[in-house]
Amino acid sequence: MNKNEKPSFFRSKGAAVGIVICFVAVIAMVGAFTFNNYEKQIDEQVAKAEKQAEKLTEEKSKETTTNEIVLPEADSNTSIQTEEEDKTDSTQEQQTEENQGEGTGVETTGDTSNLWFSEESVLAWPASGAVLINYSMDQTVFFSTLEQYKYNPALIIGGEVGETISASAAGIVTNIEETAQTGTTVTLDMGNGYSAIYGQLSDVSLAVGDYVGTGEFIGTLSEPTKYYSVEGPNLYFEITKDGTPVNPLDFM
């Protein structure tokens, strides 16, 4: 036997190993091919899922956009309805006030038709005391509390705190106010452009629009304001014609 010759056993084993290697290679190729196909399918499925997700997102976005457009429109309608309701309520309140005003006018029509104050009319004396400071619009007069000379558009009439102040002439209440100088002040329209102004009052139970007859209660005399502390308790009594002060003593 030739020494260089290998036994048939080794030849058979080598052939078997070669076959195994070829078989493994084939399996590896098939596995790689299968894996590539599987990976490709997975990628396609993922891409398809992403497209579906994007589509759903777009649809939801459209729905959200639609809702955002509709909601403000609904709010606008609600706002318009609210404004219309407010206008209706305002109109009703205005009508109610007008009706109340008309009712007040009806109650006082009989009295106001008799109001006709003129140059020949006479005023009743409104307080118990004497004149402390005369009416003076031609020259200044001295005010003790203020320690200065100034014009005086009214009579400053002395009195006692708590005494009753009555209307010097019939009139309709046109204003009730609180001022620093004359305290609680009531204005009566006496007709024909004449008005009487009563200041330094308290316990006034009148209201604008009320009719007050001659001698009827207007209020009581209060403590003097700081502008008349030296003069003491007094009634501020002013008469105006078309808004201009005139001398009350001309009618007494």
In words, what does this structure look like?
The chain is α+β, with helices and mostly antiparallel strands. The chain folds into two domains: 1-113; 131-251, Glucose Permease (Domain IIA) (Distorted Sandwich). The chain has one helix at 8-112; strands spanning 131-133, 136-143, 148-152, 155-158, 164-166, 171-179, 183-191, 194-202, 211-212, 217-221, 234-241, 244-246. The strands form two sheets. Strands 1, 4, 5, 6, 7, 8, 9, 10, 11 and 12 form a ten-stranded antiparallel β-sheet that branches. It has a two-stranded antiparallel ribbon with strand order 2-3. The longest helix has 105 residues, at 8-112. The radius of gyration is 53 Å and the shape is rod-shaped. The N and C termini lie far apart (175 Å).
Mind sketching the topology for me?
Elements: H1 8-112, E1 131-133, E2 136-143, E3 148-152, E4 155-158, E5 164-166, E6 171-179, E7 183-191, E8 194-202, E9 211-212, E10 217-221, E11 234-241, E12 244-246
Antiparallel strand pairs: 1-4, 2-3, 4-11, 5-10, 6-7, 6-9, 7-8, 8-10, 8-11, 11-12
Secondary structural class: alpha+beta
CATH architecture of the largest domain: Distorted Sandwich
Number of strands: 12
**What is the distance, rounded to the nearest whole angstrom, between the alpha carbons of the first and last residues?**
175 Å
Number of helices: 1
Strand content: 25-35%
> In sequence order, what are the helices and strands, one letter per element?
HEEEEEEEEEEEE
Please summarize the sheet with the most strands: 10 strands, antiparallel
Helix content bin: 40-55%
Q: What are the low-pLDDT stretches, counting only 5+ consecutive residues below 50?
A: 64-80, 95-110
Number of domains: 2
Quote the CATH topology of the largest domain: Glucose Permease (Domain IIA)
Mean pLDDT: 79
